[in-house]
Amino acid sequence: xxxxxxxxxxxxTLGVGVAVVANIVDIQLVHGDEWRARGEKxxxxxxxxxxxxGNIYSSDGKILATTVTECDLYLDLMDTVVMEDGQPKMxxxxxxxxxxxxxxxxERYLDTVSRMLSEAVPQHSAQYxxxxxxxxxxxxxxxxxxxxxxxxxxxxxxxxxxxxGWKRGVVxxxxxxxxxxxxxxxxxxxxxxxxxxFRNEIExxxxxxLEGYYDSVLRGRDGLYNCRRLTKGIWxxxxxxxxxxxxxxxxxxxxxxxxxxxxxxxxQSIVSTIDTRYQDIAENSLRKALQRYGGEAGCAILMxxxxxxxxxxxxxxVDTSAHxxxxxxxxxxxxxxxxxxxxxxxxxxxxxxxNDPTIRIDxxxxxxxxxxxxxxxxxEIKDDHQIKDSEGRLRDSLxxxxxxxxxSNVGMSDIGWRFYVDRRDTLRMLVERMFPYxxxxxxxxxxxxxxxxxxxxxxxxxxxxxxxxxxxxxSALQLITFYNGLAxxxxxxxxxxxxxxxxxxxLVENKPIVLNAHMCSRESARMMRTMxxxxxxxxxxxxxxxxxxxxxxxxxxxxxxxxxxxVYNASFAGFFPSENPRYTCLVVLERIPFYGRQAAEVFxxxxxxxxxIDMGLSENGVKSAWPKLExxxxxxxxxxxxxxGRQSDIEELYRRxxxxxxxxxxxxxxxxxxxxxxxxxxxxxxxQPAEGRVPNCHGMTAKDAIxxxxxxxxxxxxxxxxKVESQTPRANTAAKKGTRIxxxxx
Length: 746
Description:
Elements: H1 3-30, H2 32-43, E1 44-49, E2 56-57, E3 63-75, E4 90-91, E5 94-95, H3 103-120, H4 126-137, E6 146-153, H5 154-161, E7 173-174, E8 177-178, E9 180-186, H6 193-196, H7 209-213, H8 215-219, E10 223-231, E11 234-237, E12 245-249, E13 256-260, E14 270-272, H9 276-293, E15 297-304, E16 310-319, E17 324-326, H10 333-336, E18 338-339, H11 346-355, E19 367-368, E20 371-373, E21 380-382, E22 397-398, H12 400-406, H13 409-420, H14 424-434, E23 452-453, H15 460-467, E24 472-475, H16 476-487, E25 492-493, E26 498-503, E27 506-509, E28 514-516, H17 522-537, E29 552-561, E30 564-576, E31 583-592, H18 598-613, E32 644-646, H19 647-656, E33 670-674, E34 683-686, H20 702-711, E35 715-720, E36 724-728, E37 740-745
Parallel strand pairs: 2-14, 35-37
Antiparallel strand pairs: 1-10, 2-3, 3-6, 3-9, 4-5, 7-8, 10-11, 12-13, 14-26, 15-16, 15-31, 16-17, 18-24, 19-22, 20-21, 23-24, 25-28, 26-27, 29-30, 30-31, 32-33, 33-34, 36-37
Helix pairs in contact: 3-4, 9-18, 11-14, 12-17, 13-15
């Protein structure tokens, strides 16, 4: 190496060293503050710690709504690189893969992924997902970020990520945002959807239902901390600093704010008044009726009389996409729909008249029925159905009790015309003073429209219509509030959908809110209750009579639209048990193609199930379904009998029915029923089949018959349902062990 080259090398080294030193000086001294600020910006700042939203529980302890993790499944479906001649590009004998999922693993697990998605999101089949993914994969230019399905449960999304070869194919971030997010989930699906509440699609960050009304309680408070980056993606708060004011930059923004630091406070949980058992009963009963009669929408409300707690509130409407009746988003039928109630409002009108101290309605006095012309072109009123006496003759007059029982429009019009034709404002005032026409503002966020009464002076027809339930518009929730007050002998309480707020493990209950302590006198309420009992026993509601607990209620039918007079709203409002009311219920079927008593059937379906579930009703005026057994043997015919069966099960049945159980051998496993004779009482005798003989299974349940046969060494084959009607081989026939016994159930 020559001297010149050495000198050149030294000069270059010196130059590089000078440049490095110059840059160090520039970075640390000249622009030091700027670079330190940039570093601080990346490593420190304010971060928000979102609060967890509280849960919504049912009154029977189930979770109705909670926060869950969901994911949007995106896949990178780019596959093998193909040359111009159509052959895959090869490298060392192996196809070059540009996409993350190789063909062999893609094909092996495609059906698995499709099945997992179908089980997680049932509205689509596994074949749908398979065709969707495979169709995109086979395109000339498959998507590198192809959306397969939104709202996939996190557990399913994680399982897909863990499939061999699929991990790199699942896209984790889209547009710099994670595909994993927190959402509110209704644990029981569509059940009580409008009561629980949906996310408001128009007003961002808001909800309807209980979610919306109690949003400030459920939401909690987000934490705000001054944090420093620990590692990539992990931030550590420098200090708690709760209540401390400081100037800092938010990590997701460039601007600097003066903020107050605060700790995170998770939202509180609330307990709704909804009982999932009653809610399920109400929805299923209402849905069956709508499907049978073809209505557009309907609601069924069950309320606890004393407290006003709404135990069930089914709001079903036609969902054309699902071809079913569902809780449609933002269609709270009970709160938002206002309609002309028809005959269920006759109870309101008559109660208001009974409240009037200036008149005295003689309940024994006869009023016109059938048809009557009150004068003028539109003054003729006709009853919707013919009213006949016990001998089949048409009735042209009825007393007040019969007017309500037979739901006579003419009778109500005649009463109103006699007492209020010249005092229409008085009648209106009496009704408004008693009926909750003002907005109830229930503790569920829903659109609530103004109820109203038409101008009763506009025409005589408007006034007469008002007397039998037209010329006014109310909501179902307002109407059940009135009937609930009637059941409570004049004490009207506000309907409530939230039982209370959880403070740790302690429930702070919402107290009943009294709207009107004396909406009517006790005498008037009791008089109306007697009439409503008559509606079910002898009147228009007699299709649901013969209950063991008693129902007091009123049927209602109203033309839904005067433009389409063949479309009706059917309703039934009442309370049960009639002697000591505990529950109030209202059913409305909107826009059914013919008028009738369909809503009463739904009411009874609900009340029957409620009475069966609520064992406490046996101490609240419900008569036993079984006559009390006396000492004489003739009363034994009222006893429910099982011809044969397991003694412990039969004994438990009798115990639950509060009936005496008698057995000649209390230690025996199997018993048969021996009916009473002139000299003996009805008892259960021990049943022990002879060895080597086929047991007699007649009258047994399938489970008991199979258990008995297996115990004796025989096999069983069952067909039909019910109890054993016949068997082959016949009972007491000699048969070897292992023989198959054919059991026919009916």
